[in-house]
Amino acid sequence: MKQYKNLIDGKLVDSKSGRTFENRNPANWDEVVGVFPKSNVEDLNMAIEAAKKAYKKWRAVPWPMRSEIMRKVAQIMIAKKEELSQLMTREMGKVIKETRGDTQEGIDTALYASLEGRKFYGYTLPSELPNKSCMTIREPLGVWSLITPWNFPIAIPTWKIFPCLLSGNTAVVKPATYTPACVGELAQIFKEAGLPDGVLNVVYGSGSEIGEAILNHPDIVGVSFTGSSEIGKRIGEVCGKTLKRCSLELGGKNGQVVLKDANLELALEGILWGAFGTTGQRCTATSRLILEAPIYDKFIDMLKARAEALTLGNGLNEDIDVGPLVSESQRESIHGYVEIGRKEGARMVTGGESYKQGECANGWFYKPTIFVDVLPTMRIAQEEIFGPVLSVIKAKDFNEAMSILNNTVYGLSSAIYTNDLNLAHKAIELTETGIVYINAPTIGAECHLPFGGMKDTGNGHREGGWTAYEIFTEIKTIYIDYSGSLQKAQIDTQG
Ligand code: NAD
Ligand code: MN
């Protein structure tokens, strides 16, 4: 068990509150992974002050020099990949293959940042007027607050930290209380790579306590948040009052459509991974399976057999398919949805209960659960469950499948399985989600492409790749008049 401290101005410090909280292993609740400061507003103010002080110097460091630090971070992360991944499995529960993927996503994001610093271009454009040139450059904003969820303990923090810092901003990170250790280790890696003190600060603690104070702090210029739509709306509301920039990546209710002509074996592999990978705790998890009527019964039989063969257990064991849920309260919430599904009249074909056999007795395991004959209006077809619960819905044809797919307030990811080229393209056109997969599951984003959703999944920003840099920079438009006389746009140009 390790004692963690806040990172403020390059120093590891306890909370002024004197309070701490424990981070436990959801596969074995007796195991304490780490003890963390339960910070208060005083700690937060110190961190923001440090970030504000560091900003002036950091923004003056040339982009390629900033990206050089990102390259060093990537190198250290590569060396520590296995260590970080094992820690992540212990604090979050997902299986080791997946935590290696999560860490790799962080490494890839670091490597992307290490190149981006040498090609962060603006535009040059012609002027309406002679002897005048026009261009744009991008600049940092100041001190950012980065607030992250627990389901991707490295990948999501890195999606924010790298573009934020490479752009010349400084930051205060508040990681989720279920998974604070990975961010703690990551911050140490930045320090080891030579990041100046105060550029990246980490303050642990509860969202309701320090989260609100962050949003209201006058020195915070922007908030980048990933989490639930409920908290996201609150953040947008507070940021709106003081016109803080605000990027929100929120919930999902993603669907996989399987058309009658599809490769069913492939669609089956896709749904098993999409619905039960990460124990369903992904914003992009497949929560609804929409089957075209002619294959409905056959596909459900195939799916039930394969779902029942998935092995549950401690994710450090390489043979395990599905780890625990992150906490007892998540397990209760998921079981609550199962009860709702039963009451709504959906038919459960497998799962529906906790799994407590052998070594799993001490963890928050839940059996992969499948409801069939689900109607699109039922709550289990509408609300984000965030666990291993799949709702199967029958559609009479392609058009009905597409309208069921879009019948949700969320708009993150969709998967369409078909070998019909025309239907695949029509589906791309009709889908109301920020990410569309053809013949691949709803999960599997790559770090160099835009990531984000439509509708209640967000507020129009995209993380990943170059679009993340749009979030963290301001555009400055520059006109240089070398005519030596006053030239008036729109007036001198109209004869
Ligand atoms: P959450 O909204 O409960 O918490 C997210 C973070 O916000 C945590 O660090 C929490 O402490 C903090 N927080 C809570 N209240 C706050 C407040 N009033 N002010 C400021 N911060 C506050 O979400 P979670 O349970 O950690 O994560 C699961 C959710 O995240 C799901 O809804 C999932 O879909 C979503 N998610 C979305 C994406 C995406 O990119 N779209 C990715 C992963 C997870
Ligand atoms: Mn934990």
Structure report:
There is one protein chain. Helix 2 (63-79) crosses helix 6 (181-192), helix 3 packs across helix 4 and helix 9 (264-276) crosses helix 10. The protein has a seven-stranded mixed β-sheet with strand order 15-16-17-14-13-19-20, sandwiched between helices. The protein has a five-stranded parallel β-sheet with strand order 10-9-8-11-12, sandwiched between helices. It folds into two domains: 2-250 and 458-478, 3-Layer(aba) Sandwich (Aldehyde Dehydrogenase, Chain A, domain 1); 254-438, Aldehyde Dehydrogenase, Chain A, domain 2, CATH 3.40.309.10. The protein is built from 15 helices and 22 strands. Helix 6 links the parallel strand 9 (170-174) and strand 10. It is globular. The chain is α/β, with parallel strands linked by helices and 495 residues long. Bound molecules: nicotinamide-adenine-dinucleotide and manganese (II) ion (MN). Manganese (II) ion binds next to strand 4.
Features:
single chain; 495 residues; alpha/beta; Aldehyde Dehydrogenase, Chain A, domain 1; Aldehyde Dehydrogenase, Chain A, domain 2; 2 domains; seven-stranded mixed β-sheet; five-stranded parallel β-sheet; 22 strands; 38% helix; binds nicotinamide-adenine-dinucleotide; binds manganese (II) ion
* Relevant CATH superfamily of the largest domain: Aldehyde Dehydrogenase, Chain A, domain 1
Distance between the termini: 78 Å
- Counting DSSP E segments of at least 2 residues, the number of strands comes to 22
CATH level-two architecture of the largest domain: 3-Layer(aba) Sandwich
How does the helix and strand content classify structurally? alpha/beta
Rg is 24 Å
Largest beta sheet: strand ordering: 15-16-17-14-13-19-20
Percent range for β-strand residues:
15-25%
Task: Give the overall pLDDT as a whole number.
Answer: 97
Residue share in helix: 25-40%
What count of structural domains?
Answer: 2
The small-molecule ligands in this entry are: nicotinamide-adenine-dinucleotide, manganese (II) ion
In CATH's first tier, which class of the largest domain applies?
Answer: Alpha Beta
CATH topology description of the largest domain: Aldehyde Dehydrogenase, Chain A, domain 1
Largest sheet: 7 strands, mixed
Which residues form runs of ≥5 with pLDDT under 50? none
The count of helical stretches stands at 15
- What is the general shape? globular
